[in-house]
Amino acid sequence: MLCQRSLCIFMQPLCNKRGFAMESKFDLEVCCLRSLKELELKGQRVLMRVDFNVPTDKEGNIIDDTKMRAALPSIEHVLAQGGRLILMSHLGRPNGKIDEKYSLKNLASRLGQLLAAPVYMAHDCIGPEVAQAARGLQDGEVLLLENLRFHAEEEKNDPAFSRELASLGDIFVNDAFGTAHRAHSSTAGIADYLPCYAGFLMEKEVEMLEKVLENPQSPRMAIMGGAKVADKLGLIGNLLQKMDVILIGGGMANTFLKALGKTIGKSICEDNLLEQARGLVEEAEKKNVSLILPLDAVVAPELSAEAPGQIVDIDHVPAELMILDIGPQSIELFKKYIEKASTIVWNGPLGVYEYPNFARGTEEITRAIARSSAVSVIGGGDTAVIVHDMGLEEGITHISTGGGATLEFLEGIRLPGVAACQEKAARGIGAELGQGAPLWEKS
Ligand SMILES: Nc1ncnc2c1ncn2[C@@H]1O[C@H](COP(=O)(O)OP(=O)(O)O)[C@@H](O)[C@H]1O
Ligand SMILES: O=C(OP(=O)(O)O)[C@H](O)COP(=O)(O)O
């Protein structure tokens, strides 16, 4: 059994200036995750949540399968032990509607190649035919369910939906660390209906991030970029309590730049978050945290591989262009901060790294982090892809499959996907010791 020490850390202040430590709200007993290793799997229907939310192109082809490979140890273990594996994941944000672009069919074929074994693909994730397919599995066989987010109930953590998913398996294994910050049916609600275990990836992520939390040295720095601005802007408020420096690039920077009165042309921006961004800048000043924005940018008329990039000062972004990368002056400035940092947490590319014209900022920053002697954690599907593509894994302390999940974990926020398994484990232990009624039911 693995004790999630991030929760234990809540109990004792460990850090000096802007500590990661928080007050304990939870029992130590609740910290425990039960491991997949503990299970007798032969003949068991193992319902496993994985995070196969891989980067894809416009046609839905997989750009990078790192997240799938990361789940292979758990998948291969279940199959080797004679378990009957039912895999479930989301892909993208189809908003509760069926959209072929977000089908998991391509992932089933890729998984088949990775396992060198057949992978059955279900046409949905619930319903009588899916239940029949799950019941029909033989020992060592694997079925991949269709995108969970084709049903709006998934993101609502709807109990009836959780129950229907749970009815497909005998045991629930959560190996989706990257989605553990979402309280959804397949990550949280499902724990009410099945015995819960952590997969190997979930265990590894929690262990590695706990190590980083143990004694994070100052100067501590966060680098924030990417496109999920609405999701992650709020997290900067928490980071201000824990970091000495926050570098902001990528799509994230635009909202801050506009909030500070700069013209950002056609760049992506969350106009409804301008007030919040201004508040964060003021709070950073009060807390004496250096919140650093780009000095210049690479701009282009459209987001495409062919669009020509042009370097402009951040005060002179033309109205008809969009910011697609940080410029050379910003790269130099960011590198200076990276050289001085002792702890670095990074999520989100600093530009549209998928296209060479706008990849330089992200690549240079990746190299600088890999060269630095700081303890470094890089999180997020896209951000991790860059490190792998550049072959710089060795220089990074931990490359996490989760972006938002990693940030929230390091900020001391309890992740619903981890918490659901912990609470269930703690209650389950009591039940197994005869201290209560069985806590899960099979339908
Ligand atoms: N200036 C920008 N404008 C538009 N998109 C951007 C910009 N900078 C980065 N991005 C995009 O952000 C995406 C990754 O964002 P996100 O999902 O938040 O990161 P991660 O998957 O690492 O958590 C990439 O597809 C990248 O092209
Ligand atoms: O890719 C993910 O998160 P990330 O981009 O923060 O790493 C997860 O699969 C969660 O996806 P979501 O942010 O659509 O809930």
Structure description:
- By secondary structure, the chain is an alpha/beta fold.
- The chain has 2 domains: 2-206 and 414-432, 3-Layer(aba) Sandwich (Rossmann fold); 215-410, Rossmann fold.
- Helices cover 37% and strands 15% of the residues.
- It has 15 helices and 17 strands.
- The strands form 4 sheets. A 6-stranded parallel sheet has the order 5-6-4-3-7-8, with helices on both faces.
- Helix 2 links the parallel strand 3 and strand 4 (84-88).
- Helix 9 (250-259) packs across helix 10 (274-287).
- The longest helix has 17 residues, at 416-432.
- The model is unreliable at 1-30 and 429-443 (pLDDT under 50).
Short description:
With about 450 residues, the protein is an alpha/beta fold.
What strand line-up does the widest sheet have? 5-6-4-3-7-8
SSE-based structural type: alpha/beta
Give the C-alpha Rg: 22 Å
CATH superfamily of the largest domain: Phosphoglycerate kinase, N-terminal domain
State the end-to-end CA separation: 27 Å
Bound heterogens, unique: adenosine-5'-diphosphate, 1,3-bisphosphoglyceric acid
Query: Any idea what the shape is?
Result: globular
- Percentage of residues in helical conformation: 25-40%
Fold-level CATH name of the largest domain? Rossmann fold
CATH class of the largest domain: Alpha Beta
Strand content: 5-15%
Poorly predicted parts: 1-30, 429-443
Subunit structure: Monomer.
Subcellular location: Cytoplasm
Pfam families: PGK (PF00162)
Enzyme class: transferase
